[in-house]
Design goal:
20 strands; 8-stranded mixed beta sheet; globular; 21 helices; alpha+beta; 4-stranded mixed beta sheet; about 625 residues
């Protein structure tokens, strides 16, 4: 028995041993930037990126990178809670008509794209047409943009016609004006919608998907544009090893942008951060390195060895398998506190779902027997067991697809979505003819053909735990289930193409508007946001009424109706809202988990001297 204090290095080795013997074989990372004085922020993603072409991206990982390269006209205040939208490249807030149909915004002169050979040696200033061009690219069928249906819901005048003409021609005519995108001057843009769009401001704050793009860059690189993202943001892409490593560096031509976050008056932590960093020029770090570490144990060990600076945000927070060791009972473990590790926890604006392909002959369809099958599958699944055993308490039950912290979310709302009731599941199956006809213990379809589910999954160890949860839950009601394993990016491609019967994934809010979640059931967005391919004109009309209204009691009543649709037809089984636990080493200064946005790397600093002292301890 050892008496007295244990050194931090030795304590880390003991913890690594508890996590697995492989940890002892890996050396402590050297501080490769300390001598040069470069501020290096080292992070990790749980899944690989898919593309760095904005019109190709729907995943959080790629979008997080892009949001530091491209800039929307507006952004979110880094410290403000509740959220506050503020100008980014825009010169002030937009002028909005009383009917929420016309939005006029001016851009700040003197914002430039990062230098690139496509500009042939000249500095290229951001102009209003660059935002128009970025939206036009989404309408070009040659780009096969996965979020074009979402864009069409903004109801910008002439956009649907441009999309239909482009589909018919096989390409978009970029020189043909779109009536609702009016360039009034070099730095002034007017957006005209055919219907009220009170939520358009949040659309104008999506840097990853609504950021300005220069036409000459896209035309210069052609098919290789995904490897050459060029924006006006604080960072540039320096290196990219697909599915392995991403490196961003400070954009040397980035305009003077000073830290000026404005937390609430009663936010003591936020006020302290604002006072410490106010007036600092952004970005504060020189380089960001992202490692792709899919497995939970290597990710956790990378943090313990100080190879990465934090387990931060949905793209790389604390692995759930490490939660009992790192945050027992929701409290930071003493050995981490001794290291000065910072911890922040919150219920995320996200949801984990399993979707049913509504076009699949086994689980799809709208007849009572098909609805009964999906509801029975959902009732058979034990959400509480998932939270307790697989997620190690790092989640809360979800009642609908509307996300916490978003409009339309009601913490008092309770639905069948979180129920675990195998008896009711078996009764539904029996009632609609899903019975065991041959005595082998497994149910057949009402027509006597085999009933077997096939669920897409990923190869990482944590997914084997989720698969076992599904297997046990479905076995209790007599349903067979097989699992088709592929990497996450391949599964996402399959989801958009309609190849899966079922697949489970998470969705994180990109705006405070709860209607974004309801897009998952909007018919015109089938195959894009609507992975389940749910189609119901009644829901479509309800959704369109919701997005045309400002927040308030009338809108909330419509949200309640929309939630009942989800439960009644069960195109999605909503499982949980995840609890994020963010850990950062003490030398990371200024981190605060974003709620609806991805960009924050330029808003934090790294104390090189403190990092060096810890690495030598």
């Amino acid at each position: 028995m050892t008496h007295g204090p244990v050194s931090l290095r030795r304590r880390g080795a003991l913890v690594a041993l508890a996590a697995g013997p492989a940890a002892l074989a890996a050396p402590l990372a050297a501080d490769d930037d300390g001598s040069a004085g470069r501020r290096l922020l080292r992070l990790a993603f749980r899944n690989a990126e898919t593309s760095f072409d904005p019109v190709k991206v729907t995943d959080t990982y790629s979008a997080t990178v892009l949001s530091h390269i491209f800039e929307a006209p507006y952004t979110y205040d880094h410290l403000a809670r509740p959220f506050r939208i503020r100008p980014l490249t825009a010169d002030g807030m937009p002028q909005v008509s009383v009917d929420f149909k016309t939005w006029t915004l001016r851009l700040k002169p003197g914002t430039f794209f990062a230098d690139d050979p496509a500009f042939k040696g000249r500095r290229r200033e951001l102009v209003a047409q660059d935002y128009v061009y970025a939206l036009q690219r989404a309408l070009d069928p040659r780009n096969n943009c996965p979020w074009v249906s979402d864009l069409l819901q903004t109801k910008i005048a002439g956009m649907a016609q441009a999309w239909n003409q482009a589909k018919a021609a096989g390409r978009l005519d970029y020189d043909q004006p779109i009536p609702g995108l009016q360039v009034l001057g070099r730095h002034e843009l007017r957006i005209v919608c055919t219907e009220p769009r009170p939520g358009l401001l949040t659309e104008l704050a999506r840097s990853a998907l609504r950021g300005a793009q220069a036409r000459e860059v896209v035309e210069h690189y052609g098919e290789a544009i995904a490897e050459h993202p060029v924006g006006t943001g604080p960072f540039q892409l320096k290196a990219w090893q697909r599915s392995s490593r991403i490196v961003l560096v400070r954009n040397p031509g980035y305009r003077e942008h000073l830290y000026d976050a404005q937390p609430a008056a009663d936010d003591a932590e936020g006020q302290a951060l604002a006072a410490r960093l106010k007036g600092r020029r952004l970005p504060m770090v020189d380089e960001v390195q992202i490692s792709i570490i899919p497995e939970e144990q290597p990710l956790w060990l990378s943090f313990l060895r100080q190879d990465i600076d934090g387990l931060l945000t949905i793209a790389g927070g604390l692995p759930i398998t490490a939660a009992p060791l790192a945050v027992p009972g929701g409290k930071l473990a003493p050995f981490l506190a001794q290291r000065g590790v910072q911890m922040r926890r919150q219920v995320n604006a996200d949801v984990v779902i399993t979707y049913f392909n509504m076009e699949h002959p086994v689980v799809g369809g709208y007849t009572p027997d098909k609805v009964a099958l999906r509801r029975a599958i959902a009732l058979a699944y034990d959400n509480e067991r998932e939270i307790r055993l697989v997620r190690r308490g790092q989640a809360v039950p979800a009642q609908s697809y509307v996300l916490p912290h978003c409009s339309g979310y009601d913490p008092a709302f309770k639905s069948e979505m979180s129920d675990h009731d195998p008896a009711r599941a078996r009764a539904l199956l029996d009632l609609y003819g899903y019975v065991d006809r041959d005595g082998d213990g497994w149910r057949e379809m009402p027509d006597g053909s085999p009933l077997k589910l096939v669920m897409a999954t990923e190869p990482q160890a944590i997914y084997r735990e989720f698969n076992e949860m599904w297997h046990k839950s479905l076995t209790t009601v007599g349903i067979r289930c097989d699992f088709a394993t592929a990497q996450w990016a391949e599964n996402m491609k399959g989801a958009h193409a309609g190849r899966h019967m079922m697949w489970g994934l998470g969705n994180t809010a990109t705006s405070p508007d709860g209607a974004d979640g309801l897009a998952r059931m909007h018919g015109p967005q089938s195959g894009n946001e609507n992975l389940a391919r749910f189609q119901d004109p009644r829901f479509d009309r309800l959704y369109e009424r919701i997005i045309a209204l400002p927040d308030g009691p009338e809108r909330n009543a419509l949200f309640a109706q929309a939630k009942r649709f989800e439960v009644a037809y069960m195109p999605y089984k909503s499982h949980v809202h995840r609890i994020s636990t963010d850990l950062a080493h003490p030398w990371v200064i200024g981190f605060r988990r974003p709620q609806f946005w991805n960009e924050w790397w330029h808003m934090v600093d790294v104390d090189l001297a403190l990092r060096q002292r810890h690495l030598k301890t």
